Amino acid sequence: MKIVDLLGYQVLDSRGRPTVAARITLEDGTSHSAKVPSGASTGQHEAVELRDGNLTGANSFYSGLSVTKAVLNINSKIKSAIVGLDIDLPEVDNRLIDLDDSERFESLGANATLAVSLASSLAAAHQQQKSLARYFQPTGKLLIPMPMINILSGGAHANRGMDIQDVLIVPHGATSFAEALAWAAGIREAAAKFGQSKGMITHLVADEGGLGIAFKSISTACEFVIEVIDSVGLKVDKEVSLALDIAATQFFQEYKYNLVNANQSFSGKEFVGYISNLVNEFPIVSIEDPFAEDDWESWIEFNQVAPKSLQILGDDLLTTNQSRLERSILDKAANAILIKPNQNGLVTDTLKVVNKAKEAHFRTVVSARSGETEDSWLADLAVGWGAGQIKVGSTHGSERTSKWNRLLELEQIEDCTFNGWQS
Ligand code: PGA
Ligand code: ZN
Questions:
Q1: Atom 8 (ligand 1) nearest CA
Q2: Which one of 3, 48, 292, 318 has the fewest beta carbons within 10 angstroms of its own beta carbon?
């Protein structure tokens, strides 16, 4: 079935910032559109998000963040290259590479390429009369991922009221996704009430829907969440554990890890010790970006001393990039990878990264961005790719619940199993 039209346009993400949408029309008259997300604590090795800089007219209100150049790339070069093709995702992605063979889509913008790549995936799934999840895995039981849910937010997502970015929970004792999500929602609600009872400011909701409560120390934040889990009648460690996104690149300056709220500063070696103590003291099953994006030495050192069951998850370190993943496999710098399609720029290439990671026995955690949209394709990708885990933020905000709700739907309508925690 032929592609008869392609339209790029500018929309808003959950932070009210411009982002790119693309809409593909097929010869049967149906249209398939997708919007791309955007990060705040972005890694410097991510594919390039093309933004305009200051412009005049209505776009001047967007402080230079408008995306009309990326949109124009879709409506000119990309449109000419793909309209008239039979819908085929790998072929569309190859055409995008032909148009911009730079390492990180510097010319077209990865926000332009991903929008088109995603819209093509949806159109290709439609052609086969399948859901996006089933397009990637046509037969057999689908795997509904274990969610990692944000409860407390800090760092770049909450005005740095806490030094690290997320304290999350992993409801690994749940026997279904619906149960896991119910536990998470209960814990999130109880955390707000508990904080209020202690006189904390709890009405500030961070970029990913978590509570933006200020905590001076990471330990106090962990203790807070543990107390809340206990208060709702769930067993800490046995049923629900903690996960942290340290997002350490954000506070790594001049070879020092600076915890501003805690008023502490560490060398790489010292910070390996600090993180080791943290994971030994608390029921933490996953730790993301404990070290800065290019501090490979600390990653490698930590990997050697960390408990074998700990998930050591690379986000800014790996940026959903094949060569950085390969380096981390060789160097034994991590054992899990965060998968963010917009760090990569193409759906097929992102899937290649997932497959490479699985081959190396790395766990894969499909992840949303802090700037999201109401689209739910991420849930289908996580399921269709059998990723095993997903991280979308908290249980608040429609840009978060659109993904959770799609997983609830898939769990109801598909032949599937819920992923357990493989420690
Ligand atoms: P970001 O945050 O989208 O702002 O990068 C998400 C994360 O760090 O996991
Ligand atoms: Zn992260």
A1: 41
A2: 48
